[in-house]
Amino acid sequence: PASTSGTQGGLASSSNKDKTGYFVVVPFLLKSGSLLVNRGWIPQGMRNNAEAADLAPKGSVRVVLVPYKPEKTGSLAPPNEPAKNIWFSMDPAEMSAQAGLPEPAPMCDLIEMDPPSKEKYPAPKKVSDMSNFYVMPITHLAYSVTWYLLSAGMAVGTYVRFFR
């Protein structure tokens, strides 16, 4: 059994079909510790909206979570703003401290909730998202074929220009 502590955080994002929004990250309190759970994406307009307060599940729920290691913060990413509860990178230690947890909690993605939420948001990841990578192997193949053909075309162009 887990419960949310009532503290919800947001991660700035633009990953939902050209819309800006946030991932809702909540601490789940367990008997043996706590977890930071990414419940899903909400549009930017819901961040301070009264609807956002009703996102927490009511009663007892069964959840399917997938643990993950957060990505390293890029050198061009702006700093997190814990005072405003805006996060540009998922830093478990910093997010745990902001949520009042005694120690850094592991990160998980919510995949399924039973009973399922009747709300459209937050939109959790799908199981198929877990097997799709940002750059799939077929994309690598397309890149290599493209660059091979470009370099072959340049080689032919160079030969024609300088050796004919």
Description:
This protein has 164 residues and is α/β, with parallel strands linked by helices. It contains four helices and seven strands. Strands 1, 2, 3, 4, 5, 6 and 7 form a seven-stranded mixed sheet that branches. A hairpin with a 2-residue loop joins β3 (19-30) and β4. The longest helix has 27 residues, at 137-163. The relative contact order is 0.17. Mean pLDDT is 77; it is low at 1-10.
Pick out its properties.
164 residues; alpha/beta; 7-stranded mixed β-sheet; 7 strands; 30% strand; elongated; disordered N terminus
Give the topology.
Blueprint: E1 3-4, E2 9-16, E3 19-30, E4 33-43, H1 50-53, E5 62-68, E6 86-87, H2 92-98, E7 107-114, H3 127-131, H4 137-163
Parallel strand pairs: 2-6, 4-7
Antiparallel strand pairs: 1-3, 2-3, 3-4, 5-7
Strand-residue proportion: 25-35%
Largest sheet: 7 strands, mixed
Total number of strands: 7
Percent of residues in helices: 25-40%
Count of separate DSSP helical elements: 4
Q: Outline, from the CA principal axes? A: elongated
Uncertain ranges: 1-10
Q: How many whole angstroms does the radius of gyration measure? A: 22 Å
Strand and helix order: EEEEHEEHEHH
- What structural class do you assign from the helix and strand content? alpha/beta
pLDDT average, as an integer? 77
Terminal CA distance reads: 78 Å
Can you summarize this structure?
Helix content is 26%, strand content 30%.
